[in-house]
Request: fold
Amino acid sequence: MRENTTRRRLLEIVSGGGAIALAGCTGNSEDGSSGENSAGDSDEDTDQTTITLGTSSDGSSSWTIGQAVQAEVQRNTDIRLAAERTDGYASNIGLAADDGVDAIMVFNNMYRDAIESQFNYEGEDYSVEDLGWQGMSTLSGEYLLVTTQDSDIEYYRDLEGRDVATFPTGTGIKPQFDSFMNRALDMDPEEDFNRLDLSFTDHSSALRQGRVDACGFFTHNNGEIWSGTWQELSAQNDIRPLQIHPDSLEEAKQTMGNQLREQEYPVVDQQGFNNVEAPCVFLVGFTVIDQDVSAEDWYEITEATVENIESIREAADLLWDVSVEENFTAGIYEDYPVHPGVANFLKDKGWWNNDWTVGGE
Reply:
């Protein structure tokens, strides 16, 4: 049985000088650094239906999830699911539009923004038909900036003129977090402070050595899972999250909607453990499936994933427990169709929401 590492337990471990590595969490996130495109690892079996799933860069959380799901699907169905490496979530939008793969993993708001030609996709011309229909959620990510306990930085507005490592260029989260700072905080990361484009693995040492005054930080699945990179950051630095100034908070909430949430983070200071509530950019990763993928095939993939979720999570514990309705459906928008294979599965489970629509109907 895998053991969930709670945030409090994690800090108890790291404050004692050690840092553990969670299975499936030691690489960068799904929004990690770019990787080379590569097909699945096994040779194609012509007796099987092959369905390709674009995940993210090698070693990322989404790639790890894809590999674990691929293995379980192939053990329990006649379908060959090929979870392929890609250059990350941003490139997956283009892959889907160009029919490079049969399905992709992506942040749900990126899917929406691409279809609506807004924010980072302003001027682009994508449609639901180009990208595909909505599917199962895979994980959540919570993104924020942190500084050290003894820093004089309290609010995001205090970053003006400082040295800051936000999120690396080429990662899926960078444009999302830049958009948050621009739209919600009226800040330009390229103009208002000295943005250092460091890799995730450099953040801990840079903060400890004083080369940066603040850096990017993220968790998964409602803050319950910290990757190995962020465990190291917490082990080597007494950190605390940045806050949005009270004068800007309400406007930020109105601008970001459900993409901005208040979440508790445990911090270590001279008084011991304290839970600090801080705003974070909340994003949901989910699957988008090409409309040419049959309902029967994707139903089988979905069923195999949900029914074998514990085995999959032993290999990739960043995957949400999608045997729970609210986790499975967290990424679905009412405005866009749900793939019929997913819709049929949800109806059979009694999880269907009549406000949703089925693709092709």
Notes: The chain is about 35% helix and 20% strand. The radius of gyration is 20 Å. Strands lie at 49-54, 79-84, 103-107, 133-148, 163-165, 194-195, 214-220, 239-241, 260-269, 272-289.
